[in-house]
Amino acid sequence: xxxxxxxxxxxxxxxxxxxxxxxxxxxxxxxxxxxxxxxxxxxxxxxxxxxxxxxxxxxxxxxxxxxxxxxxxxxxxxxxxxxxxxxxxxxxxxxxxxxxxxxxxxxxxxxxxxxxxxxxxxxxxxxxxxxxxxxxxxxxxxxxxxxxxxxxxxxxxxxxxxxxxxxxxxxxxxxxxxx
Length: 179
Description:
By secondary structure, the chain is mainly alpha-helical.
């Protein structure tokens, strides 16, 4: 007789994940000892291994041309790159600390995406709009059309709309920061 187990993973422990990241990223964070840094790095690595598939599977259900999907998939890809990176092998702790801080930033970002049901990137509407433009334009023959001098001459309604969304997001950020 075989017992069927639920394949549903338990929810991520966002509080623990954020606390671990804050140990390296908080404004008043103390520099950890080499042993503590090694432990934190391993914990952050484990948090990302758990968070990446959870966020990715939730995001893949979003519309393919959506800003939230593009931004969240970018963050997942960045987390994967950081997981595959190795800390500096030099004798100085600076390289190892920087590596752990990059992992911590990815943990924070994936926690934000996981917690936010619509997966909007809370601090990066400009980046999300830019990513949508990057996802569309390189594969669009109308966007890539150039004349003999290499000047863009293509006319793509979607590319123009995406550029305008990016321009507006950028303008909102600049106006919001008082620049």
